[in-house]
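Action item from last week, closing it out:
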Amino acid sequence: MSIKKQILNQLLDKYENSAHFKNEAKVNRRIMMELKAPLYNIENPTQKQAVHMVLEELSKKQLVKVLWLERNHIAKQVQLNLDNVEQAYREINRQNKRTALHSVRELCIAQADDPDWLRAFLDYVTEFIDTRHKIPAIMPEDQEEQKCLLIVLRAIAQLDGEEVLERVFSKRLLNDSKYFENHLRAKTASILSQFKLKTKDLTTDQVLQEAGLFRSSDELLFTGPLVLGVSGQIIDFTPFKYGAAIGARTVKELHIADLKADTVITIENKASYREYCSQMNGTTLAIYLGGFPGPMRKLFLSKLDEHTQNKRPKVNFLHWGDIDLGGFRIFRSLKDVVPKLQAYLMDTGTLLENRSQCQPLSKGYVMLLEGLLEDDRYAEFRDVINVMLAENIRLEQESITSFLTSEC
């Protein structure tokens, strides 16, 4: 970076963090910087002379004032001329921060069809700019990325249950299959986590899957006595005793023709799903989740729930997952779709029976668990959470080797 840019950038940084920039200055306090090494090394005549030449140029343009200890011999301080701040920005081709903030504010004007979570995000950014006079860290600094981020968020809001591959999504919206992954993925997940899902303990992949964005092609795996109708065809999956898979997008087109199961169970992890299916009886439908359910899995469960309400109201819906934060969050997400859903092997007894397989809790993890105790949506897990906290343990589903009961 040139000497001129170093000097003006430092002065403009100080200006942008000052009361002058915020229009709150009650006294005419100077914006200045001390000249010292390594920028200004008085022991190096060549470097010192180069700095002097820049100072003289900037002084002639009335951008700065220089305080000399000895005229043209040693410079002590450089002061920004507040009357010519805009010219100082132009001198080094730096965008005026006021202009940048105004651009972001204009970008964050809500549109008529923006959902509540997106409006909350836009309001947050606007208020942050108005009160703190800077762009929040959750927004990109680059103007192009800011515009693309809003395009992405509005597109996510319009997915309406569709599941899309991230690179297809990026190519479709931004004409670059890798732009979303390289520039916006982390911030998009952060915004969705904070304003849409309102949770802090999900991974980036989990958050985006909840929104309908997947890194690889997704399939729905299930095993059991289920008959589906799709494209005018009726398909009986009952004979597929080792399981079947359909493309997630097919879920939107299918209907439940018949369900001969007494129990429908969703299972979080694949190893547990495979083992469970190898031992269950013929009156259970098992569905593999693979972590947080995306929109299509939720739609599939919704169709199953609607069918059972009309045709088989006594069918039990269960969920079996990790006895940890993620497992509890997944259960809650599923119960929003199937209100009568019950937890399976996610209780105190299961936790303590498998204590030797448990893992310890970190301090941050403990705080998040304690937060669930205050949330009525997790009331069915309060007993097990209290034991987890008291014993400092959590349990992954794969650690449970004895799990089959009469429900199976």
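Closing note: The first strand starts at residue 32 and ends at 34.
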